[in-house]
Design brief:
The complex is a heterodimer of chains A (423) and B (250). By secondary structure, chain A is mainly alpha-helical. Chain A has 2 domains: 253 residues, no CATH class; 136 residues, D-Maltodextrin-Binding Protein, domain 2. Chain A has 15 helices and 4 strands. Chain A has a 4-stranded mixed sheet, sandwiched between helices. In chain A, helix 5 packs across helix 6, helix 8 runs parallel beside helix 11 and helix 8 packs antiparallel against helix 12. The relative contact order of chain A is 0.11. Chain B has 250 residues and is of the alpha/beta class. Chain B has a domain of 170 residues: Rossmann fold (3-Layer(aba) Sandwich). Chain B contains 9 helices and 10 strands. In chain B, strands 6-7-8-3-9-10 form a 6-stranded mixed sheet, sandwiched between helices. Chain B has a 4-stranded antiparallel sheet with strand order 2-1-4-5, with helices on one face. Chain B is globular, with a radius of gyration of 18 Å. The chains are: A mainly alpha (423), B alpha/beta (250). Chains A and B meet through helix 1 and helix 9 of A and helix 2 and helix 3 of B.
Amino acid sequence: MYRFWATFRKEVKLLIADRTGVAILFIMPVLLVVIMTLIQYEAYKSLTQSGIPVLLVNNDADSLGGSIENGFKKVSICELTIDHGETYKTTADIKRKVIKGDFLIALVIPQNATTVLRSNVELMMNNLFDKTKSQKNKPGSVNVEIIIDPTTSKSFVIAITSELKKYIADIETKVLFSIMGEKIGALLHSDQKVNMPDADFFVYHENYAFRDAGETFQPNAVQHNIPAWAIFSIFFIVLPLSSSIINERSEGLLIRMRIFPGSYLSILSGKLFVFFLVAIIQFIIILLIGIYGLPQFGLPVLDIGKHILPLVALTIALALAAVSYGLLVGTLFDTPQQSAVFGGISILIMSAIGGIWVPLSIMPAVMQNISAVSPLNWALMGYYELFIKGGDWYAIEFQVLKLVLFFLVALAISYRLYKLKTN
Amino acid sequence: MNGNTCVCISKLSKIYTGSDSFALNDLSFEIVDGEIFGLLGPNGAGKTTLLSILCGLVKPTTGSVTMYDYSVENDIEAIKKILGVVPQDIALYPTLSGRDNLMYIGRMYGIETEKLKRKVDDYLYEFGFGKNSNLPVKKYSGGMKRRINLIGGILHNPRILLLDEPTVGMDVQTRTSIIDHLSALNKEKHMTILYTSHYMEQAELFCDRIAIIDNGNILALGTPRELMKKGNAGDLEEVFIKLTGKKIRD
């Protein structure tokens, strides 16, 4: 243990001696996490919360236009601008505003839309109840225009058009019900009107599928981004670690270490332990940023869940995996340039397929299958369980096991490579 | 192995994987306890391979090496404790001070911290380091780095010291100072020294016995005087050129 701690001490001194390196190790990940979370939070917010500019040009002064207008006023994701044809008189005017970026979507309800709807329903009823009337008339159509900024997310377009169709279907049903009632009343020679009840027949309840029924936190961009970018940053420890290993080899220090009495393993483990601690400290700093720093930028507070020991276990497994990957890269390559390029790009690839940049759910099926080979994905799935689904140890044990296995396999390959290179 | 034999090399051969020529070819010789033994040879002669085998870095293809009663093959851990090595490369951390480098090396040999601090202070003083010892090694001159490299090899008071070109690239003053220190270690601490060099004049003055090797074979072995007499030459360099030729080696 004396040699282990002596190496630990030496590595700490080496880190401290390189102040720029220390700054890069701790400040850059924090900057990365803050910037990426802020960017993604805004993007996430634009899809799920409020502030998406929608223009509703309601030229119909009757119930259809009114129903759509009232409905959209209740939709929280919209920053709704309503016009009754005073400002935006032509489609060209509206298109110009959308192109300019003032609105992402514009909906245009034509004049007399309710009248046309009513006429169509009456025509249908006449065809049904009195075939002598109006048989030669064909139903007209109500042309609702939807003008979309090409950059608008498809999911948002679907959400808005679904809302629109829902309100139209609602008023269509009411008109149909009303006219049908009149027709039936006439057939029965009754003056009594049939009114459509206002009650909703279906009530929808949104429940998040937390593993722990007692969980109360709400999924948001912070819950996703903090662990995702923390994992990404921690894996970047591969660069200084591999570079340090290569420099020791190329500067003859490895030979000196191999001449020292005792196992080289105790020296190597002293070195790896320092980088392991750096990874853990990086993670703790990033968590603290999530809890105390990001709220200063108006973001929600990071909720780390109730299961602290599983969180510690997962983070230790993540740090071990990152350190062992650094050892592997450092053993495999002969120059710091090679290790920096390979290490950096391989982490970018593993993070991309691992769901760090883009959520797995929107990746093609083939990429979702490939993501299962990325250790960054294993860690991310573990943190999702703890931070988003309220999972406990049993929910993450498989991810921890995979990370520990990755650590052991990377160590074994590194040892084999080291033996090949030194014999 | 004679009673006062310190290193015994017997029928030692080495062929590296992928090579069809001998790096060392059936070498046999002994180094006597307390002796300063010079190993001279052109580039690629096999000097570094021999030193690497002696300190357990490279395994021989055939043959054996014993140091005192320890076999390199079976007792390498015991040998590492009595062996000091001064590598040709400046194997130091450039961002750490000379003192920190030495403290690290000393700890790796298991020297207790307080004792180590005293030893490091003594050696730094002896080798002419003042406040400079606390500067990062990257700010040292070539000579200062070589001196720290040398102290790193002797901190644990080894019985046998292997030096691979310890004075390469140094000015005359530094070379002389290092050789003086090595002579003192040999005399005062009875340290056996195995030394490789390209400086013939220095080897002639410093070594008790010299082996000239080339292509993995020993071409001549004896005291500098014996070698010059056998080679009918005025100095060691002439003997060396006669034995190894004038062809430039890579």
